[in-house]
Amino acid sequence: MKLAVIGGGTIGVKHLEAARDVEGLEAVAVVEVNPERAAELSAEFGVRAYAHYEEMLAEAQPEITVVALPHFLHKEVAIRCAERGVHILLEKPMALNVEECDAIIEAAHRHGVKLMVGHTQHYHPDNLAAKRIIESGELGQLVMINDMRHVNYYRADRPGWFFEKAKAGGGIFTNLGAHSIDKIQWLTGSRVTKVKAFVSHYGDRGDIEGSGVLLAETSIGVPATISQSGYLGVSRNETEFIFTKGMLKLETGKGLQISRNGVYEKVAVEDLGKPLARQLKDLMAAIQDGAELDCSGEYSRTVISVLESVYRSSETGTEQAVRLV
Ligand SMILES: NC(=O)c1ccc[n+]([C@@H]2O[C@H](COP(=O)([O-])OP(=O)(O)OC[C@H]3O[C@@H](n4cnc5c(N)ncnc54)[C@H](O)[C@@H]3O)[C@@H](O)[C@H]2O)c1
């Protein structure tokens, strides 16, 4: 199958690298508005570079596109790919709002193409090991979940569009909170149903939030908190699951620990291969056998709906129900 990557930035290049590890998949094109970057990628990956996606879709005729663009371009480009009959791996967060998600889902259905959203959390081996333990019930009843992420969000090399609400949709919650919301929902087989959230703006760039706290209710009755801050602190990316007979500490990409008697012990985690390559393989399998995707448009829309509730709750100072339909 022929693959094109639209947007050759931080993650676009990783998708090009991942495609090298997928049998039966050949990267043929990259679309990138920055001409120097486009030339570099063309030389490194042996793909044809285009400045505009319409020209690429007409000429290169890929079967799959990866849409790795700033968030405000997701809807327009995903819909055009669907109209051209091209299957889509659309990077997270799916779009700026639920209405945009609906338009993308509708276009994919109408044109009979597969739509996968790049919720890469589903492919990290630490997360998959955590999911198995949660589902086994060996730690008893799940009581609560606390997710905490601190990063230097305002680092100098982060592209400027991430700091503009009109282009990014929001700040650290939209970009990184989307992973936390997805992780909680997917790992526990639940949906976030209600939120009370406070987001705050202490960053020195743009008009997006640089921090926030969310208290969530889930459809399985387990409460969760998500705390995010993007300033000059100590980096942390931890999700702690508290059960009646123990605890799990998940540090995605760094490991998983389990406690049954007051101390944490490392869980041996199987190396399953590169997450982005496995993500592409899943999309190809779904195209070939028509299987439903775990990270479908319908699922990914729920993450955007939670994000909308987060901002509504923070603005109004009230608890908000998540619109699930
Ligand atoms: N799944 C993950 O873990 C993960 C990690 C990083 C980023 N992302 C997501 O991937 C997407 C891209 O993020 P990024 O960090 O790569 O951003 P980026 O700014 O590094 O890359 C975007 C690229 O798109 C190019 N571009 C902009 N407008 C264009 C247009 N009209 N046509 C063609 N190219 C255009 C830019 O020049 C840039 O090179 C976002 O949705 C982001 O949230 C996901």
Automatic annotation (TrEMBL):
<dbReference type="InterPro" id="IPR055170">
    <property type="entry name" value="GFO_IDH_MocA-like_dom"/>
</dbReference>
<dbReference type="InterPro" id="IPR051450">
    <property type="entry name" value="Gfo/Idh/MocA_Oxidoreductases"/>
</dbReference>
<feature type="domain" description="GFO/IDH/MocA-like oxidoreductase">
    <location>
        <begin position="129"/>
        <end position="248"/>
    </location>
</feature>
<dbReference type="InterPro" id="IPR036291">
    <property type="entry name" value="NAD(P)-bd_dom_sf"/>
</dbReference>
<dbReference type="Pfam" id="PF01408">
    <property type="entry name" value="GFO_IDH_MocA"/>
</dbReference>
<dbReference type="Pfam" id="PF22725">
    <property type="entry name" value="GFO_IDH_MocA_C3"/>
</dbReference>
<protein>
    <submittedName>
        <fullName>Gfo/Idh/MocA family oxidoreductase</fullName>
    </submittedName>
</protein>
<feature type="domain" description="Gfo/Idh/MocA-like oxidoreductase N-terminal">
    <location>
        <begin position="2"/>
        <end position="119"/>
    </location>
</feature>
<dbReference type="InterPro" id="IPR000683">
    <property type="entry name" value="Gfo/Idh/MocA-like_OxRdtase_N"/>
</dbReference>
<dbReference type="GO" id="GO:0000166">
    <property type="term" value="F:nucleotide binding"/>
</dbReference>
